[in-house]
Structures are given as C-alpha cells and as structure tokens.
Amino acid sequence: MTADPFADLPPLRDTIAAHGLSAKKALGQNFLLDPNLLAKIARIPGDLHGQHLYEVGPGPGGLTRALLKAGARVTAVEMDSRCLPALGELAEISGGNLSVIEGDALTIDEPSTIGNAHVAANLPYNVGTALLVRWLEAPWLPWWRSLTLMFQREVAERIVALPQTGAYGRLSVLAQWRSTARIAMRLPARAFVPPPKVDSAIVHITPRAQPVGVDAEILSRLTAAAFGQRRKMLRASLKSVPNALEALETLGIEATRRPETISVQEFVEIARILSDG
Ligand code: SAM
To answer: In this predicted complex, what is the ipTM?
Structure first.
C-alpha cells in the first residue's frame, strides 16, 4: 500500500460515469463532487483520526473519501444498490477502514448495529429530518457523539433558532434542550450535482448532559401541543396536556403567551413540573 492509498482514485465524476450512477430524483440524490468542499465538511466533527464515523447515504462516496482521508473508521449505510460496487472499490483500498451496509437507515437499530460513533450525512431532506428527530429523542447520553447533517437551509435555521423568531419551534427545543446546535456551513444549490431547488446548510450538534428530573417524552408532547397551534395562546394550545396550565401558573408564566416566546429553559421547567406529577 502507498502512503496515501486514496491518491490514485479517479475523480468522483469518473467513478460516477464508470458505474452509471446518474442521480435519481426519487432517492433524493444530489451529489457533492468538489474534493476541497468535501474535505472541509469532513473537518466539521473535529479530529477524526481513529474515530468511528457512521455515514448515512454515501451515494458514490465523495464524502466517504473525505472522511477516510481525515482518518475516520467509517460504517456507511446506503439503500441504492447501484452505488455498492463503487463503495466496494473504496472499501478495498481503505485498509479495513470502510464497511458498507446495504439498507434503509430508517430501519437501522444504531446502538446494536453501529455503536458509539460520530454521524455525518447528506440525505434527502425528509429522511434527514426523520432521523434527526429520532436521534434527538434517543436515550441520553445517546449512542452518537456528534451529528454533522445537511439540511435545506430553512430546516437548518429552524434547528438553531432562538425564541421570538419565525423559525423557532419544536425542532429548536428538541435540538437545544440537551444538545448544542450550530450552523457549521452554508452551501448554495449550485454546489450539488444536480442542483436542488433550495440552498442547504450543515448543522453540527453535540450532546450535553440532560437537565435533571425532565422526562423527554413529556417535553416532546408538550412542545408538540404548544407548536401544533403556534398562533394560539398557551392557555388554548396546552389545554390537552394534563396539568400544564397549573404548571404555567406555578412558574409565573402568563398563559396568554404564544409558544414562540417561551424559551428552551422555560419549556424545560414546565416539563420538569409535569414529569414530577
Ligand atoms: N453523500 C453523497 C454526497 O454527499 O454526494 C450522496 C448524497 S445524496 C443527497 C443522498 C444519498 O442517500 C443517496 O445516495 C441515496 O440513495 C441515499 N439514501 C436515501 N435515503 C436513504 C435511506 N433511507 N437510507 C440509506 N440511504 C439513503
């Protein structure tokens, strides 16, 4: 093996052509081909040398190459069987650092199949959001060490949004109450082949300790009720949540407020009282 086993790889565009991997719209395929951009993305989780990384939806393997070059041990799950030969070639020269699983990431039981790992993914937006919510609701501390995920820009902004903004909602609270979430990179639509309709952004999320005495399921139900009717005052939207209006009173939170004015900390305090009862 040469010092850099990846030095002789053909450009990704040639790999895509050689394996007939034209992007399929139904699979939400928009590929990143620029090695410099991919190397920058691979730096977002921090130093990956010797780290286990779970990549969801590697496609032809552009980000996978960058993650391997950054020193990660990669487990990748891809559902498009057309991509497996190209990924197999990459696995062969990776010196045992890439294993590929053919399958649907939505059905993977990560704690038993993947174990502790950083996560990186450029996924179709609907799949990405479904996985994010599941990962944020995982038992704490979760199996994932960090999440580096591509979203359409508007979703990324909802994840990191602060109260009193139009983007602030359930996703913001779920992402921020026991994690730190930030936008690490913004990408114009033209960075992808083919370009999607909207711009994208990469969110980086790391877990923190969970506030004591708060049941995650209760917080989840509370935010679903509050933001399910975001134009309504809490006294109307929280009627369906047992003891929630009493909790507001205990905390001195006006029931005439609307959910976007309630801070993450206030949601946590309401949930803590409800978790007690
Ligand atoms: N990571 C590559 C890149 O950045 O160029 C490909 C990104 S493309 C937007 C999304 C990839 O995720 C596709 O290869 C698609 O087949 C795969 N994919 C879509 N849904 C999936 C799922 N549920 N489980 C696993 N892979 C999926």
So the answer is: 0.99
